[in-house]
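Worked example (supplementary).
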Amino acid sequence: MEIFLILGITAFLAIISFFIKNYKALSLVNVLGHLAVLSIVAKLTADIYGNGASISMFNFFYADPLSIFFMLIIGIINAASIIYSVSYISNDLKENIISSAKASLYYVLFNALAFATFLVVMVDNLGMLWIAIELTTLISALLVGFYNKKNSIEAAWKYIIICSVGITIALFGTILFYYAATLTGATSINWTNFMAIATKLDPQILKVAFLFIFVGYGTKAGIVPLHTWLPDAHSQAPTPISMLLSGVLLKTAIYAIIRFTIIINKSVGIEYSSSLFGLFGLLSLGIAAGFILVQKDIKRLLAYSSIEHIGIILIGLSFPGIGIYGALLHTFNHAMTKSFMFLGAGNIVKKYKTGNMNIIRGVINLLPFTGTLFILGAFALGGTPPFSIFLSEFTILMAGFQNKSYLTCGLFLFFIAIIFGAIIHHFSKIIFGKEPADSKVKGYEDFFRTSSISLIFLFIFLIAFGIIVPSFASKILLLAAEVIKQ
Amino acid sequence: MKPVIIIVQALILILISLLISGIIRKIKDNLKMRKGASIFQPYYNFLKLLSKDEIISENSSWIFKITPFIVLAAAITATCLIPLFGTGFSLNNMGDIFTLIFILALGRFFLSLAGLDTASTFSGMGSSREMFISSLVEPVALLALFVVALNSGSTNLSLIAGVFNFKLSSLVAVIALFMVTISETSRIPIDNHETHLELTMVHEAMLLEYSGRSLAMLELATHIKQMVFFSLIAIILSPLIILPSFSLYQILFTIAFFLLKILIIGAFIALVEISIAKMRLFRVVDFLGFAFVLSLTALIIQTWGM
Amino acid sequence: MLGVVTANNGFFFLIMWELMSLISYFLVVFDSKKSKSIQAGTIYIIMTHIGTTFITAAILMLFNYSNSFDFIALQNAAELIPSGTKNLIFLFLLVGFGTKAGIVPLHIWLPYAHPQAPSHISSIMSGVMIKTAIYGLLRFVFIILGINALWWGVLVIILAAISCIVGVVYALIEHDIKKLLAYHSVENIGIILLGIGASMIFLKMNIPSLAILALIAGLYHLINHAIFKSLLFLCAGSIYKATGSLDIEKLGGLIKKMPYTTACFLIGAMAISALPPLNGFVSEWLTLQALFLGALNSSGFLRVFLGIAAASLALTGGLAAACFVKAFGITFLSLSRSKKAEEAVEVPFSMKFSMVFLSILAVLFGLLASPIVKYLSHLSQYIANIHLNTSFALNNFTLIIQSKNPIYLSTPLILLLFLLIITIAYFIIHKTLRSNKVATNKTWDCGYYNLTPRCEYTATGFSKPFRLAFSFFLLPQTKTEKVKDSFYHTTSFKHEVSTIPLFNKYIYDPILDLIMKTAKITRKLQSGSINVYIAYIFATILLLIIFMGKF
Amino acid sequence: MHIINIFAIIIIFTVFYMATVKRITSLINGFLVQSLFISLYVFSEGVLTKNMELYSVAFILFLLKVIVIPLILKQLIKNIKGAFSISLFITLVGMFLMIFRKKAISQIIGLLVMENGLFLLAAAIANGLPFFIEITIFFDILVSVMILGVFVYRINTLFTHIDTNKLTRLKG
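After joint prediction of all chains, the assembly is encoded as:
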């Protein structure tokens, strides 16, 4: 029942915001809508918290603890992003960078994207999963190309082409999976049915199919050799959108890969997928470390650090047992921290009118509130203890050491150290130091009031999960991990 | 009873020290075919200085005033550690040979501070050179005494004095100690204590600004320090005879024997002073490097059990 | 920092540890206007973070065998760890805690971070924070891991000796007081580790009494260093407040204007260069005794090795004394070299109070050696979990070591003797011969011109012999520059002396360049053309299919 | 001049040959021959116009299309048979189009070729995905083509050319 409600509200918002002209009402409706969605998701999590059961309706929709966990992430990030985009877009309107028609278009697309992402997580049918992800790519491509400037159009073009190629390959994989299923006589393409007949599937075809799935959805998740679109798209998109891209879209692709891994693990066994994850995880970590060192633009740096964290999640998934729990925790923490950092970066870029880190100085003097939170966020991203990222990285490391894969953990620690050094080096240069003389522009003070709400909203998650994961959250995580380990 | 003997012992050492430097100067002059001043000349200098007026530079502070007392006190505490009459008779529950080195370092520390205090370039240069040489000497002295202590089982001076275990390693250590004495008592190869030429004086430079009574105290302190080093070598070379009975004859004999040893060392020092010209400051590094290698070989020999 | 010491669970220990370095990072970058302090802060936090990664790796390896983070569980699980991994864990711990303590190859952040922080912060940092690293080492290596091999102690002593000498040599050529003190922290950490390394060796050779003695020496120096180092940093802070500059060359003659700070700095200087009545001497004497008795009871190579360690300790003591004569002499004595030093005024009461309090503490810790040693012997017996009844304090004045042929030390007696002799000398010489007058006049200036502050001896001059003696290590660079009006007429002559920071040049810079080079290569990966990107996808698919068999 | 026309004719013949032939391996040989002649054609074009770039294009075409691709395809064929290989081949050709073509429109076409390769695959081995999924995928592709069209239009207005390999402003 709740599933319909969520999808219904997002669809309704998408249509409504096309007609409301007055910006104030538009933003109010949207914010309320998304808060409602968040509350429904929360209610859903409370339900399954009790009995850990999964809801499935007319064998099309299916929500087990894993998908509800992802729904939680999507709900929270959507809410934060909508609050931020209220002031972001109103500020653009005031400086008439965009017309009011464009503003309502923005909200239409935003809600469509929300609808698509929720769809991805709820659907049971693998074909439908593919279509939902294809939808998210198309809508987010439009949003990336929102500002109609040369750079953002080029970024959007690359984003849509590369991701479509990737997703076509994923379709190739899905068809192979379906082919393997038809060999054993099953007709439905539902995930639940795959789970039932997993042991009977022919492993040879499954292995080839899983490769295609991994590469296909991997392009969407930003795994290294396929990540090329990510830095351009994330740095050119408007801030609330790049926050959504990093926080949510990468995670939906990871969700899709996990769905297929569960099947393959059941039929072919754990080592096949874990060695694949381990290799590509380390590869993404290493290459991202290289890139972060030489970055000049804040948003591109944050984009590369998303690739790095995706690599960490993959490494987490490659260790059985507690590693999966750590990976899921890391997905949650990374979603929160990365969106938090993108918000901060958005404010800074808005104030200094450039993303180039050599020009930005003395953020702490110009924007004291964002500055302090930003440097704390930087430490959180680097993985220092009081914040949540350290906790999840530590769990993954614990699993790694227990798994006796010392080389991976050694490399993991080495790359983390380099990235920590690079991030601190870059961000401490821009936070402290003397601010450039001409940047006394006072225009943005009100802008920061609304954005600071979402900043604090996310910061609470950073700290709350810092030392010890609260009991109800760890219960949900355990349930989700159970689903994966099935 | 014991403290009385220790005080008497210290007084004798202080008195003898002036005599010894007088004798060394006498031997040097005779070797240079000169009549030379009488052996009691240091006593006359000391008394003359006591009666002279004193001039203190206006730039200097209270450190300049208290340094003579601290340097003298350091020298005299060092003498209390040396057992002259017998093994038991030194203030050995106060410290051992490491403490001896550190007490002398205290005296040197304040002397070089006073050197810097008077804002005159000569004394500044003197204190810089003094600290330079002494920082290189300290490891040599420590290692040499380390070896001797290893031979005699403990660093307690009176125990070292008591035990007669004359080994090759102790001999090599004593040679290294001898080189240390040359640099500590500012004898020729390292430093010239008689001249006032800026280039050659190290120890003297620091006393440049002093006059009258404080100069007298500092001169006395240098003589006592020299006495401490000589007696240290004397004890290591041939240990004291343990007093069987506390008769007067016994005490006189030990003092005479002790004096004889000190004279031999003094003569040897005079010989060295005559034969070698003063080294350039940075040649001193090689000289002390050689001394360090010597003490290291002593340690290695010691481990072979010789 | 309290958190670090009170945590009883490996995981919380890590969290508190990183929290400590994070907050101290913010303190270092406190006055963020100066770009130097940002750079210092970055180096500091990166180095400590690398250190923490090593510690995390070690704790996780320990966790593998006991799968619970509690210290007691770790301790019981320590037996069943194979000795190969034990050595590896020990090396990780040494590197991890070494970066925090500032052992030589990993010390480069210390001279940058400490001077940047405001002085009272740097006094806490070098006084106490560095000691948490020693605490960590003791907690993990002594109590949890247990000493496994002899080469552990030998390695620690080698590192300690090197950091002693390197710390002091760099301090000698340093002219900024706080940098000088930071280098001295490196040297004193070396001395503490000498004690701890020696006790590791003796534990392995199971001579319990010596192991306890060495541990006492290490711990005692740890406390002493905390006292006199924070004292010296506070004095440096008050100098900075009074004169606004920390460069010794510009100061001078402060003794006449700031009597309290001078007196406290003098006591601090005497304590750090181990001069008898004060606390530095007692702990250095104990370390020397530990090394000596160790040499006595061991044979062959170990005896020579301990002898050389003792010699290096003596060399450090000598050089430290020279360095502090320079620091004290040039800053406080003779004429003031700059106008700022001229108008220096004594610091307010609160600063004076803390300095005086610390200097009294330094003196007390020197005199009350035996009660402290008694307490420390119980402590070290707990650490090394050996139980023996000999406490090294004869009575509450003198220390006694090795009852067979006893070695004594009683600092109160030395002080008593000193005061006695000084009073006697004073009475004999000044009171009895009252007739002479004491006049004050100008210093001797060879008779023909008036002495100006410029012709005083400078810090660079003072340290010149050391620079030449250690030139093989410091590689001094001299740059001379003639400022000329016309071809013939030079108006001024600029002479600059600098030394190459050896470690940065040969260890850290090459690694950094290597990482940057690889980063630049990876940058080419993102060449911008869409066709290349699709080719990447194509290539990955092909490679995966070809190598499918291998998974 | 006439040699080039001969090459063109031969290429047409190979297309017909490929369209008719049954067995996969002969299809690949047909492809091999066709790409051989295409490279010769480009090479002779280069000779005529003295344009260095054409030589390199010819050489790359020759190297890849005549040697590498057939080798891979033969290796792939070994373990999977039937219509599967045709669809795989078409998808790869589609991908090929996207890598080697400059114009934006040709990239869209490449994408579409890949997608219809997949449809062929679905039809061949699994006699079609569930009907509902097929239709939605078809609509999905329609939407994506429309959006791609919007972007091509925007690129044209902004960059006044639709040459993708000039779109390299975002680097590093």
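Two points are worth noting when inspecting this output. The mean pLDDT of chain C is 81. Residues 130 and 509 of chain C are 25 Å apart (CA to CA).
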